[in-house]
Amino acid sequence: MNINIAANLKRLRKQRELTQEDLANFIGVSFQAVSKWECGDGYPDITFLPVLSSFFEITVDELLGIDKIRDDEEVKKILELNYSMAPDGKSEERIALLRDAVKRYPGNYELLMALATVLTFIQGADEETKEQNRKESMEICERILARCTNNVIRNNAQVKLCYLYDEMGQKEKAAEIAGELPYIWNCGLIYADFLTGDKRIKAIRHNILHLTDALDWQVERISSDDTIPIEDEIEIYKRMIQIFRLVFDEGEFYHLAVNMGERYRYLACCYMVIGDNESALDALEQALPYAIAYDNQPEEAEYKSVMLRGLKFERAGYGKDYTESWCYWLLKVLDEAKFDPIRNDPRFIAVAKKLRSHAKQ
Fold it and tell me: 3-state SS string over 294-353?
């Protein structure tokens, strides 16, 4: 409370273009008293609160910062509700929640950034809705960059703008903004170097977890490039799977189980292209348990892997842009014509049957 009244007094005084001596003279105290109040070294006697609030034409609650505390608590609850809906793909409900919140708290940049993010996170929306959402998201990000001083939120807005411009075909603009972002070594990687003990080890393990995810992200991009020979694509997927197995113990992939399953699914597609049906069936059988695991993530768990030991997984921290199960989406992939040569194979039928069973749950 003391910190709030100190900041509020200083802000209100400057808004009136008063010196500390001016304020002291107006309310009948010493200059030193006002200085102490604004530095947080002391605070006004309770009898001065009505005098100060009357002078600045605000309520005592506003002077003390109680309204802001209440607002901060309400914003925190809204953000927690937003994140709690993320794992179930409730994007439209989240947008409605955040739009209403932004109307009530238009100056809260954390709410604005959350809305800008979710606006472009709807699977299956029509093109008109997507375009409107992209435009709204872009306007929000530009507003954040023009006014917000929090570097973390500003960087998130820059990242979002990169992808928005890219989706609009403005790759040069996207690259220009991306080039202004902090280089990877200026981010979390060096943070651990300035910690000690358990905090240092935990920070390093967080880096390993996030970098594994980021590496897989880059692997997907390079392997999907049309200039990459299919033999190289297969080898890239195999190596990424090996990296996953180095970092995670089996059964601990949690939110990244979908990534592991996708590498096997892509392998199956590649094998179908080169006519290696047996390897394609092997890959589909490998993809199956990861699709099921992703759909059955625990709400919370602790990693046991030597690389991640001590870190805690929380399902609420990871969102998706669809409400269906991953088994449902993998089953749709199996309907593609590329799998026709093995469609009647007993192994293919067994995989599809298992997916169908879990997709209905």
Answer: HHCCCCEEECCCCCCCCCEEEHHHCCCCCCCCHHHHHHHHHCCHHHHHHCCCHHHHHHHH
What CA–CA distances, in Å, run from 251 to 238, 246, 302, 307, 318? 19, 13, 11, 14, 18
Gap between the terminal Cα atoms of the chain: 50
264 contacts 284 by C-beta, under 8 angstroms? yes
Q: Are 244 and 219 in contact (CB under 8 A)?
A: no
**What pLDDT is attached to residue 1?**
41
Q: Which domains does the chain have, with CATH numbers?
A: 2-64 (1.10.260.40), 90-181 (no CATH), 188-359 (no CATH)
| 90 Cβ contact list (under 8 Å, min separation 6) | 323
Q: Which residue has the tokens 């991306």?
A: 178
Instruction: Write out the two tokens for 95.
Output: 């947008």
CA angle 225, 230, 234 (to 5 degrees): 100
**CB-CB contact of 263 with 237 (8 Å):** yes
If you write DSSP's letter for every residue of 149-216 in order, what string do you get?
--HHHHHHHHHHHHHHHHHTT-HHHHHHHHTTSPPGGGTGGGGGGG--HHHHHHHHHHHHHHHHHHHH
User: Which structure tokens are listed for 214?
Assistant: 């980021």
pLDDT along the chain (361 residues), means of 10: 68 85 86 84 80 81 69 87 89 92 88 94 79 93 90 91 89 85 68 84 92 93 89 96 96 95 96 97 97 95 95 88 90 95 97 91 56
User: CB neighbours (10 Å) of residue 36?
Assistant: 15
Integer CA distances (angstroms), 325 to 72, 125, 300, 316, 353, in order: 35, 18, 19, 16, 15
